[in-house]
């Protein structure tokens, strides 16, 4: 494994992160994932995966967030990653539209606990893993299409790229050198997967994608530590990563340019709402009209205008999106999320309580929502998510609200207090004192074992 290849250069970058020089704010990424995992404890997909993993057994090395189980490190990463992504509340990198932390943080937590790594080492590993994940996503971003080639092909870039980023993070914590981390990433490239059809027509398998990426990343690092090797040209080679996923076309500068200086990690934004990120500007519009006095009972019809490329995710098939089959499916529906914002309300405007079960009143209002392509939103996409909402009342009045960047984006960032509130709401299963202790430990860079122990039942 040499530094002349793409994976070799990424591995050298990862090793360089051991000495610091990473952006601020990484502990907040870890805390956000801990909160999401705590909020997802009772999710049916989480319970299913945890039941399966408990039957597998194995050497207890790392902890399950909130549950107290100790499992082999790859298995703990799997469960924690499923919890991190189950609510669709995890952070987003733009314009690749990746959700990096839900794979990288669980992989790093498991590896850090298994190896006894300290808190600063955990933070540096998370930074390296997220950066590599995001750069892989950006390398496959088509500027003419203004979309990811992964998404054009129905592939879930989050889990595919997250597997390799997770391997880099775990490799750092297992003490691998640059050659070893290169092998870990080379191994992991054979393991990443994920299809996006569940976004369109339902099914809960997408919730497992980040968990499986974390599981594969830790496994790849362990395999490399024990002597398994990966191909040095795994990314750019004739039968490599980009050949498989993008027909060999990729942006080399986006992948490798300015490593350690230009941080894609810093373009990763937090979600205020537990729904598909493409629905957020529509939710913002609905909340704004509601705050201005619109009552759901007065709504005769609604037109939601969004970027053309997102229609296939949040508006198609139209019948499925107008009447989602499950509350989870509703998180990927423009009509349902707009209706929920007009009728419900929890958390930072729309919260997990609004998507526990399908609501008959929300479904009735969603049936009055039509989704269309909006030229302005399309021009802005995917550097920001924009929308316009036009509401016709039964009295004949036409109301309109537009946002050019959804809440939580670089142009409209969440306040520090919002992130603290998000964690407290997600950590509601803990006592106020216990939640405060978790938050303080994350910000004080305490070791993973200590941090995870604070999330367990008392």
Task: Set out the fold topology.
Layout lengths: L5 H11 L9 H14 L4 H13 L5 E2 L6 E2 L1 H14 L5 E2 L7 H15 L3 H21 L1 E2 L4 E2 H4 L4 H17 L4 H11 L8 H5 L7 H17 L15 H6 L5 H5 L11 E2 L10 H12 L7 E8 L4 H4 L3 H5 L4 H4 L3 H10 L16 H7 L2 E5 L1 H6 L6 E7 L4 E6 L12 H11 L5 H12 L4 H6 L5
Describe this structure in words.
Strands 8-7-9-10 form a four-stranded mixed β-sheet. The chain has a two-stranded antiparallel sheet with strand order 1-2. A two-stranded antiparallel sheet has the order 3-6. It has helices at 6-16, 26-39, 44-56, 73-86, 101-115, 119-139, 149-152, 157-173, 178-188, 197-201, 209-225, 241-246, 252-256, 280-291, 311-314, 318-322, 327-330, 334-343, 360-366, 375-380, 416-426, 432-443, 448-453, and strands at 62-63, 70-71, 92-93, 141-142, 147-148, 268-269, 299-306, 369-373, 387-393, 398-403. Strand 1 (62-63) and strand 2 (70-71) form a beta hairpin. Helix 2 (26-39) packs parallel to helix 21, helix 2 (26-39) runs antiparallel to helix 22 (432-443) and helix 8 packs antiparallel against helix 9. It is built from 23 helices and ten strands. The protein has two domains: 6-269, 2-methylcitrate dehydratase PrpD, CATH 1.10.4100.10; 277-403, 60s Ribosomal Protein L30, Chain: A (2-Layer Sandwich). It has 458 residues and is α+β, with helices and mostly antiparallel strands.
């Amino acid at each position: 494994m040499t530094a002349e290849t793409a994976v070799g250069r990424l591995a050298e970058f990862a090793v360089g992160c051991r000495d610091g020089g990473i952006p601020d704010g990484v502990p907040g990424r870890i805390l956000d994932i801990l909160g999401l995992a705590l909020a997802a404890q009772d999710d049916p997909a989480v319970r299913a995966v945890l039941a399966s993993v408990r039957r597998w057994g194995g050497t207890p090395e790392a902890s399950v967030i909130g549950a107290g189980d100790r499992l082999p490190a790859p298995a703990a990463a799997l469960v924690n990653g499923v919890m991190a992504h189950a609510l669709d509340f995890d952070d987003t990198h733009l314009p690749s539209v990746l959700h990096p932390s839900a794979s990288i943080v669980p992989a790093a937590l498991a590896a850090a606990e298994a190896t006894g790594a300290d808190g600063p080492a955990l933070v540096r590993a998370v930074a390296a893993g997220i950066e590599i994940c995001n750069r892989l996503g950006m390398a496959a971003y088509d500027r003419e299409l203004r979309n990811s080639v992964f998404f054009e092909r129905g592939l879930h870039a989050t889990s595919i790229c997250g597997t390799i980023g997770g391997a880099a993070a775990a490799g750092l914590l297992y003490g691998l050198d640059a050659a070893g981390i290169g092998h870990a990433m080379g191994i992991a490239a054979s393991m990443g997967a994920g299809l996006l059809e569940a976004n369109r027509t339902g099914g809960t398998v997408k919730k497992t994608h980040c968990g499986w990426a974390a599981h594969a990343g830790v496994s790849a690092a362990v395999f490399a530590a024990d002597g398994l090797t990966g191909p040095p040209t795994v990314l750019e080679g004739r039968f490599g990563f980009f050949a498989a996923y993008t027909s060999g076309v990729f942006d080399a500068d986006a992948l490798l340019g300015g490593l350690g200086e230009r941080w894609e990690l810093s373009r990763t934004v937090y979600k205020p709402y537990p729904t598909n990120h493409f629905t957020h500007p529509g939710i913002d519009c609905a909340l704004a009209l509601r705050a201005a006095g619109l009552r759901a009972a007065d709504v005769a019809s609604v037109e939601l205008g969004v970027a053309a490329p997102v229609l296939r995710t949040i508006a198609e098939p139209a019948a499925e999106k107008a009447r989602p089959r499950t509350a989870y499916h509703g998180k990927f529906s423009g009509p349902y999320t707009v209706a929920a914002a007009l009728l419900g309300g929890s958390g930072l405007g729309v919260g997990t309580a609004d998507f526990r079960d399908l609501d008959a009143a929300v479904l009735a209002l969603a049936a009055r929502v039509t989704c269309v392509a909006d030229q302005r939103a399309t021009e802005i996409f995917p550097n920001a998510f924009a929308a316009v909402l036009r509401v016709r009342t039964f009295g004949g009045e036409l109301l309109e609200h537009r946002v050019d960047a959804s809440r939580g984006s670089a142009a409209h960032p969440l306040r520090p207090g919002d992130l603290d509130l998000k964690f407290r709401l997600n950590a509601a299963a803990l006592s106020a004192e216990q939640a405060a202790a978790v938050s303080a430990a994350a910000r004080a860079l305490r070791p993973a074992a200590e941090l995870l122990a604070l999330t367990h039942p008392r």
